[in-house]
Write a structure and sequence with these properties.
By secondary structure, the chain is mainly alpha-helical. Helices cover 37% and strands 8% of the residues. The chain has 2 domains: 9-98 and 111-148, Arc Repressor Mutant, subunit A; 171-282, no CATH class. β2 and β3 form a beta hairpin. It is elongated, with a radius of gyration of 26 Å.
C-alpha cells in the first residue's frame, strides 16, 4: 500500500542519484511511498514496477541493484522472504502515529549478502536515529539547516562508489557474437556502453545477417569502424547466392570485394520491400 512521504529539495541535486539516471532516482523516491514505517518493503521487482512505473518499461531489479551498490538500500533475505530496507529512512521521514507497525524483520547483523552501512554514527560507531516524539511520530530533520545540504543523502566519510552502467545486453555478448577481435576490447566496450538500449538490440539483430552476407571476417569492418559508421543501420539487398548484403552507395566497396556484382532491378525491388518491413517493425 502506497503512503504519503516527505521529499526535500536537496534530493534532486544528489550527485550519486543523478549519475545513476532518472529511472533510478524516481525509483528510490517511490520506494519511500511503498515502505512501511521502518523503511522496509518486500523485494518483489514486478510488484514494485506495477506501483511506481505502471506505464514505463524499466528494469526494476537492475535499478535496485544500483541503489544497493550506492548504499541507499539494503537487499536481504530472512526465512526465505526477500526484503528491502531503505537506509536512513527515519532521518528523512515522519511516519504517521497511526501507521501500522512493520511486519517485516530487520536485516540480521553481519548479513553476508550486503554490508550494513549506517549514514550517521556516534563516537562509538553505533547507529544513531532520532527518538520518537510524545505522539509516537519520529521527528525528521526537515527543519534542521544542514539537512538542506545537497550531500544529505550521502554517507559520511564514504568514498564515492564507482557505478557501472547496467546494460540491457552485456558487452561480452556483442564481442563474442561479432567475432572480429581486432580492436582493443576496452575501447570497443566504451562505444558499446555509450549506445542506446534500442541500438544494442538492433546490432544484435544485424550481426547474424552481416556475418551471413560476408562469411569471410577479413572483409568485415572492425568493431570500432562498425560503431563509427553505424553499420547496422544500412539497408539490405540480396546477392546472387541468396544471402543478404548491406547496401551502401557502392555495393562492391561495402565489403572490399571487387568480385561482387551490382544489384539488379529485382534486388532493388527487394530492398524497397525490406525498407517497408523495417519501418513497419521499428516505426
Amino acid at each position: 500500500m502506497a503512503r504519503a512521504r516527505n521529499i526535500k529539495p536537496a534530493f534532486f541535486k544528489n550527485y550519486e542519484l543523478a549519475d545513476a539516471g532518472m529511472a533510478c532516482q524516481l525509483l528510490f523516491e517511490g520506494l519511500w511511498c511503498l515502505a512501511d514505517r521502518e523503511g522496509r518493503l518486500e523485494d518483489k521487482p514486478r510488484l514494485i514496477k506495477a506501483e511506481i512505473f505502471p506505464y514505463y518499461d524499466v528494469d526494476i531489479n537492475g535499478e535496485l541493484t544500483v541503489l544497493a551498490r550506492l548504499k541507499f538500500i539494503d537487499r536481504y533475505v530472512v526465512n526465505g522472504e526477500s526484503i528491502i530496507q531503505v537506509k536512513n529512512f527515519k532521518k528523512h521521514q515522519n511516519p504517521h502515529n497511526t501507521e501500522k507497525a512493520s511486519t517485516l524483520p530487520p536485516m540480521p547483523e553481519n548479513y553476508v549478502a550486503s554490508d550494513c552501512f549506517n549514514y550517521i554514527t556516534d563516537n562509538n560507531g553505533c547507529l544513531t536515529v532520532n527518538s520518537p516524539s510524545s505522539n509516537g511520530e519520529y521527528l525528521a530533520d526537515s527543519l534542521i539547516p544542514d539537512s538542506l545540504n545537497t550531500d544529505s543523502l550521502i554517507p559520511d566519510n564514504a568514498a564515492s562508489p564507482v557505478i557501472e552502467k547496467v546494460l540491457n545486453i552485456p558487452f561480452e555478448t556483442f564481442w563474442n557474437a561479432y567475432d572480429k577481435k581486432t580492436d582493443p576490447p576496452a575501447k570497443a566496450k566504451q562505444k558499446w556502453v555509450a549506445l542506446k538500449d534500442s541500438e544494442r538490440i538492433l546490432i544484435m539483430d544485424h550481426i547474424p545477417k552481416y556475418k551471413s552476407a560476408q562469411p569471410d571476417k577479413q572483409y568485415r569492418k572492425s568493431p570500432l569502424n562498425y560503431f563509427k559508421d553505424k553499420f547496422w543501420t544500412l539497408e539490405l539487398v540480396k546477392s546472387y547466392g541468396g544471402t543478404e548484403k548491406p547496401r551502401t552507395g557502392n555495393v562492391n566497396a561495402a565489403f572490399g570485394n571487387p568480385q561482387m556484382q551490382p544489384p539488379s532491378q529485382e534486388e532493388i525491388d527487394e530492398v524497397a520491400a525490406l525498407q517497408a518491413e523495417f519501418k513497419r517493425r521499428h516505426g
